[in-house]
UniProtKB/TrEMBL annotation:
Name the UniProt record assigns to this protein: CHK kinase-like domain-containing protein
One Pfam family it belongs to: EcKL
Source organism of the structure: Aphis gossypii (Cotton aphid)
Superkingdom of the organism of origin: Eukaryota
Gene3D superfamilies for the chain: 3.90.1200.10
Coiled coil segments of this chain: none
Amino acid sequence: MTSGCKNIDLFFLQSMIDKTEPGVKINSYEIALGSKRGDNYTSMLYRIQLYGDNGWSKSLIYKCLPDNRQARSTYKSEILFNNEVTFYTKSFTTLMKYQEQKKLVDTFNSVPQCYLAQSDIVILEDMRCKGFTMLDRMKGLDFNHCRAILRVLGKFHGLSLSMKVDEPEKFKECISDAINEVYYKSENELWYKGYYRRAAENAVKMLESELTEDEKPKYLDKFRKFVNHESFFGYMVGLVSPKESLAVLCHGDCWTNNFLFQYAQDGSISEVSIVDFQLARYGSPALDLVSLLYCCTSVELRKQYLPELLEEYYDSIVSVLTQTNCLNHYPDIRQKLYEEVREYNVFGLGVALDMIPIITCDSESAPDMYTEDTINIDDEPSKEPYPVMTTSNLCRQMIADLVKELVDNGCLT
C-alpha cells in the first residue's frame, strides 16, 4: 500500500462508489502519486484508478494529510484540511443548491465533483480524465489563461453576492459564518512572524541586487517600510477581515497550479477547473484578484491588459447578478470593485513575498510532503515554518517589477 493511503481498501472504495454509481462492482484498483514535489503544499495527493466489470473504470484524486506529523504541525495541515472539508460539505454545496434554484442559463460548474470530504481525506473527480491539464507554474499566465480564470472567478463571486441578497440567513449560516480565516489571523502572528521576517529579508536582498543605486531610495525604502516585521502580519490580518457589501466566498489561494484547463480542438480554452480550497475565506473579492494578478502574471501583461482583464471579471459578475435579478442591490458595484482592487494591491505584494519564490523554485527546493514520519512528535518541539528562499533571476525580476509597479502607481507609499 502506498504511503498515505493506508485507509484505502476495496470495501471503502466500493461503499463510496455505491453512493454515486449504484450497481458498479469494483474488482481492483491501482494507486500512484497525484502530483510532483513543489506542485502542492500542506497535503499529499494520490491518483486512484478503479477497475470494474464490463470494462468500467474511473480515476479519482485522493487528498490526505501528510504522513509526516512534523510536517503536519509545521504547516498547520489539519486546520487547513478542515477548512477545505467545510467548503465542500457545507459552503459550496449550499451555493450550488442556490444556483440550481435560480435556474441560471450560464452556470458556474468549475469545481471537480467531490465524492468524500472528512477530517483527513478528500476524494475528488480526476479532471485529467476530461482532458484538463496544469500549466507550468514558472511560465505564469498569459492573457487568454488569465482572462479565462477571471471569468470563472466572476461567476463564483457573483453567486455569493446574489445569495447574500436572496437568502441572507442561509448565506450567513453556511458561508460567511462557516468559513473562517485559517492563515492571516491574529493568533498565528507569533507563529508566522519569523517566517515572514525571513521572506522579507530574502526579498530585500533580491531588490538590492536588482535595483540601481539611483532606484533604491525610491523603491527599497518604501518596501522596507511595508515589510516591517513588527507590523506586517497584523496589517495582512486587517486586510482579510470581511468588509461589506462586496465580501464573498473567496478561493483564497489563487495561483497557477490551482487552475486546470481544458482546450478545444482549435487550441482555445474551453473550460477552467478550480482546485484546492484549503485557504477558502470570506472577504473582499479583490483578495483573489490581486493574488492571481501579482503572483502569476508578468508586469508587461499587467501594463498592457490589466484594465481589460478587470472588465472581463466585472462583466462576469454582472452577468450572474443580472440572471439572479440582484444587480439593483449593488448600484455602484463597478466603482466599488475597482476601489477595492486598488486598496488591496498591497495584499497581493504580501502574498507575493511568499508565493513568487515558491512558484519560481526548482522542485527539489520545495517542501516535500511525502517524506516518512521518522520522529515522535511528542518528543520534538514543533518547528516554525520556513519560507522557500529562491533567488533565481526570474524570482528577482518578478519581485522587483512588482515593487516598482506598486510604488509608481501610488499603492506602496
